[in-house]
Amino acid sequence: MYHIIGVIKMKETGVVRRLDELGRIVIPKEIRKRLKIKNGDMVDIYTNDQFIILEKYHPLQADIGPLKAFIEALMVEYKSDIIIVDNAKVIYSTCNEIPTGNMINESLIHRVDNYLEKEISSKVGLEIIEGVKLEKDIYITKIFVNYEHYGYAIIADEIISKKQKELSNMLKTYFENLLEV
Predict the structure, then answer these.
(1) Are 78 and 85 in contact (CB under 8 A)?
(2) CB 44, CB 55: distance < 8 Å
């Protein structure tokens, strides 16, 4: 993979792989681990000029426009921050402290099942992304698309009440009705 900085191409890894007779390559374990790509994960393949780009596919990112519009409408209606994450990064966030695209804190991923469907006080100091503790109460629910777990919806507000739990249920229903490609 190359990063293009101005007109300078910077090679990130020095790994070279040979194509087999069917045109396949193996993505090195170190790269898969760093990008959190596991066996069975889907990969989006596209080209950009002379480059072949492989990107971990996520159905929630396939067409982010309708998702953004829906989440922003809910944010206005419920006045709560909404953060959508997969098992690696922030897919979309209405919270200024948690920018879209940032990697999720590893400790959150390891402990997230302990937090599901519970009101989490801001005093817990939960870090969604490394080094950022939200000063709000949090409510986390799983996201399923076509019965497959794809991530989490995190609701952040000054206090979690029946209203935020209703918002969480609306998000779950929205994602359950998405069709995966």
Answers:
(1) no
(2) yes
Place of tokens 């596209």: 46
Mean pLDDT by 10 residues, the chain (181 residues): 44 76 89 81 84 77 79 93 89 92 88 91 89 91 85 93 93 79 45
**Any idea which residue has 């400790």 for tokens?**
107
Count Cβ atoms below 10 Å from residue 152 Cβ, excluding itself: 23
Full-model pTM: 0.71
Asked if residues 84 and 60 have their Cβ atoms less than 8 Å apart, the reply is yes
Residue with tokens 């922030």, as numbered in its chain? 90
pLDDT at 44: 82
Residue given tokens 């829906």 in the structure block:
70
